């Protein structure tokens, strides 16, 4: 079950992280794999790489990536509510692998079942694809035309939109997605994602109450 649900994420992650491996290799070499293993955050890794290219201060890079990933607090807190009865170690293991995509895929499955193992397997499969794609990009990046790997990161956005639209079941879900999407685009910053998510939650709740 976890493999079937994870497969679209794994395929997308492999090719996107392959692009990261190609681009990061001149700066970090094989340590790019360690970065993918420990950070496991596509947007943060690509932005951090761009800041390294521009010789940004290390503390600015750290603060920027923390800000970008702050939205994970919302996702992890939602998951934490589902797995409230688990010990802190198990919850930490589960939280480490939460990304936009693993959250979107997993939340519909674990919300009713509380299947911690499913979410952990889903996270691990996605992480494995992300790390192996990075390693592949480092090893064989010279064989990949620049036009190909330069457009691969857009696949992450396309995949998330596909997951989001497939998760919309009813008016309240649609209202939540539309409100959050519009606000995120209007604000246009990493902080805006947090406000957009909160606004989407409120809008979805109001729509649910109105539609019964």
TrEMBL record:
How does the record classify its membrane topology? Multi-pass membrane protein
* PANTHER family, alphabetized: INNER MEMBRANE PROTEIN YGAZ (PTHR34979:SF1)
Q: Where in the cell is it found?
A: Cell membrane
- UniProt name for this protein: Putative branched-chain amino acid permease (azaleucine resistance)
Question: Per the UniProt entry, what are the Gene Ontology biological process annotations, in alphabetical order?
Answer: L-valine transmembrane transport
Q: Which UniProt keywords apply?
A: Cell membrane, Membrane, Transmembrane, Transmembrane helix, Transport
Annotated source species: Geoglobus ahangari
| TM helices/strands, residue ranges | 7-25, 56-74, 122-141, 148-168, 174-207
Query: What does the entry list under GO cellular component?
Result: plasma membrane
Similarity comment text for this entry: Belongs to the AzlC family.
Does the record carry Nucleus as a key word? no
What's a Pfam family in this record?
AzlC
């Amino acid at each position: 079950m976890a493999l079937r649900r994870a497969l679209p994420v794994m395929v997308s992650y492999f090719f996107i992280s392959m692009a990261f491996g190609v681009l990061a290799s001149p700066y970090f070499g094989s340590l790019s794999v360690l970065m993918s293993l420990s950070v496991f955050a596509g947007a943060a890794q690509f932005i951090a790489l761009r800041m390294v290219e521009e010789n940004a201060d290390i503390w600015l890079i750290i603060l920027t990536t923390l800000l970008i990933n702050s939205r994970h607090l919302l996702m992890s807190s939602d998951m934490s509510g589902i797995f409230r009865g688990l010990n802190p170690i198990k919850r930490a293991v589960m939280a480490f692998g939460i990304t936009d995509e693993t959250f979107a895929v997993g939340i519909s499955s674990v919300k009713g079942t509380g299947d911690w193992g499913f979410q952990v397997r889903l996270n691990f499969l996605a992480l494995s694809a992300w790390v192996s794609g990075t390693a592949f990009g480092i090893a064989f990046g010279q064989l990949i035309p620049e036009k190909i790997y330069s457009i691969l990161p857009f696949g992450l956005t396309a995949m998330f939109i596909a997951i989001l639209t497939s998760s919309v079941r009813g008016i309240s879900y649609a209202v939540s997605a539309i409100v959050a999407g519009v606000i995120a685009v209007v604000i246009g910053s990493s902080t805006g994602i947090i406000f957009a998510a909160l606004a989407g939650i409120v809008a979805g709740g109001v729509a649910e109450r109105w539609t019964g």
